[in-house]
Amino acid sequence: MARTIYVTCPGCESLLEVNAENGAIIKHFPPQAKPSGNEDPLKHALNLAKEKDLTREDRFQKAKQEAEKHKKDLTKLFEQEKERIKKEGPVTRPDCNPFELD
Fold this sequence. Notes:
single chain, alpha+beta, 3-stranded antiparallel beta sheet, 1 helix, 15% strand, elongated
């Protein structure tokens, strides 16, 4: 089983998940934003959390709108098929004996 280690990149300070056997990078985690020199770290963390909440809410609203649009499109297709079936009439098939299916 491949062993993995976590290394901090000296250039960009991101976290790298590395395969210890062959040195291949498995996953790259971007660096965390750090507060400026005189900013309170707690306020900085709170601001980051608020920004993430806003982006999460935006993504949720976008997904909700797409789902509503998809539902509306499917309803429209369903109604079109109902109208087509009404025009063509019922589908009939000859009586089938289940023992004749062999």
